[in-house]
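1st attempt posting a full record on here, be nice pls
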Amino acid sequence: MTDEKRLTAADKTVITLRAAIENRRFSDIVEAAGFPKATVHRILQTLLDYRLVTLTPSGEYIPGPSALKLAGTALGAIDISDIATPYLTELASTTGYTVHLAALNHDEAIYIAKRNGTTPYHIPSNLGERLPLHTTAIGKCLMAGFSREDVVNHAVEHGLKPHTPNSITTLDAYVEELTHIRERGYSFDDEENVPGIRCIGAPVFGMHGKPTYGVSMTALAMEKSLSELEEYADTVVGCARNISDALGAPSYGYSGVK
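the predicted structure (as tokens):
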């Protein structure tokens, strides 16, 4: 059991509230909280009074209306740019290269944040710029979160238009590429969207476990080969993972995608 002597009343309340949101049965809540049954019962009664939890007719605890209202208010106040900026700034500073954050928007991605690195050149990209999902690192790591059926439907509806001679233009090659991305956890744009530009990207997962944003690092092809760019994979994925954690993602990685 948790050492109660070192915890304040506020600590115990927060721990019990979290246990009650993640578990339904009283016995499971007690086990998750790590406190004696009497302590948990007393705190749960307070949470019931404040409508942070609700007791169902079958005797199970579920999040109450006050908790749901607070969650909705918190979600409405989230600005992904504010959350991601410290991590993007660190990534740009650590690598020295330009980094972007883009959001999935139906059949495309849109740049919503950018940080320049220390290179003597700047990547000519702008906030609000639209990105195709099949030729960009961010787009591909977002599409890797879709089922094969959704990928096929997207390709049929929107096509796989080439942007450069390196662009993927066949469905089989696209599906294979997305499979590799799911396995390794990051994506590449090997001069597939703009000639002379290479990118490495990683998905940002939201609270529902789906990739809804993507992070990328960009370099000139004449400066970095694909293998040299891959040396930054752990750093780019680490940035994306940190942002995912800050967004409340239940876990990190492509799970259950077929």
